[in-house]
Amino acid sequence: MKIPTLPRLVLILTALLAPAWNLHSEDFPEEPLILQVDLNGDGVAEQISRRKLGADDQLGTFHQILVKDSRGSVLWRSPEVLDVDHPLAFGEWDFGISLPQFAADIDRDGTVELLVPAPQSDVSPTTFRMLKWNGTAFEPHQSRSLVGKGQKGAAFRWTDEPSTSSYWVEKWIGTSAEGGWVVKLVSLPENGSLMTAIAVLSTKGDGFDLVRWIEPPAALGGGDESAGVRPDAYRARLSARDHANSAGAPLKKVLDVLRQDRANVHRGTHRDTEDDVDVFFPTAENREGMARMPLRVIGGAKAEAAILNGTPVVEVQVSKDGLQVEIITP
Fold first, then answer.
1. Are 327 and 300 in contact (CB under 8 A)?
2. FRET label pair with 271: which of 54, 93, 200, 320, CA 20 to 30 Å apart?
3. Are 139 and 114 in contact (CB under 8 A)?
């Protein structure tokens, strides 16, 4: 099986963030360093991680994938290969990145799938390599794109012949409150603007249905920054549900409130009308990294008290120096 080399949408903040506070990353990697998933159904999560295997002067860096149990014992490791055409090759190459992005039983067949985007370098439907856990190892299953229409109730199906005028899954983000899959969708209609959206898909038969929007389709860079995904900031209403953790305990630090707000948005648990969907904190690992980021609140202690004791709309600027928070409306 040859790894497809279709171009892919490159996230706009790779060069923006290289912070000392480190969001579980090396220069803010596009894919998480560690995935946690219960592979054998015993209620205890295994870890899927990676390590650098070697480099090729012409191609880039190769990685090996490791599966470990809760005690740290290695259950499986991918072959040590330095060949991009190998079905179990993983790496950061000059023509794109191909590293594990998401792991779950997405088709509800009782077997965990590992989704690995094929290397791509510009705007074109994303191809995912799907590997299935057979009880002792991950095996290559298919390499296809998941596409559908940009409307509620639309069917999304795996295909070998995707069209840029359709919406395709560009990124698997997480699990929604109702047990669906939170994904980033992208479309590039002919003679149109690049469209992005955040949606919840539910498994249905051999595909998925779009059940609701978290972020409806909007043109990226279309002039209205509140409609698209900004590369340097996001806005959020810090409502009552953002002021308590999942156990209902009140939060007493501004950073904790900001982190809970992002968790609510990206999990699909709760999103206020004013909440943007940011590109910085879609994963649990990166949200955990917020606690280590330097924070500056415009307005000092008075503004901090207004955030902790009220429900203001804030703008959060994200840079290599940390976070800057400013109250926009009380």
1. no
2. 320
3. no
Tokens of 250: 């009140």
Helix (H) or strand (E) holding 62: strand 60-68
Which pLDDT tens digit goes with each residue over 11-56?
333 333 333 344 433 333 457 789 999 999 999 999 999 999 988 7
* The one-letter amino acid at 140: P
What is the domain partition of the chain in residue ranges?
A: 35-219, 233-329
Q: Which two tokens stand for residue 156?
A: 């999304």
Q: Encoding tokens for residue 218?
A: 């909007």
Residue 139 near residue 132 (C-beta atoms within 8 A): yes
Is 160 a residue whose pLDDT tops 60? yes
pTM: 0.63
pLDDT band at 230 (very low <50, low <70, confident <90, very high): low
Token representation of residue 140: 């290559």
Q: Tell how strand 313-319 and strand 322-329 pair up.
A: antiparallel
With a CB cutoff of 8 Å and minimum separation 6, the contacts of 181 are: 104, 106, 172, 174, 175, 200, 201, 202, 203, 208
Question: Which residue in 206, 93, 203, 228 sits closest to 144, CA to CA?
Answer: 206
Length of the chain: 330
DSSP 309: H
User: Which of 50, 128, 62 lies closest to 93, judged by CA?
Assistant: 62
- Rounded CA-CA distance 87/129 in Å is 9
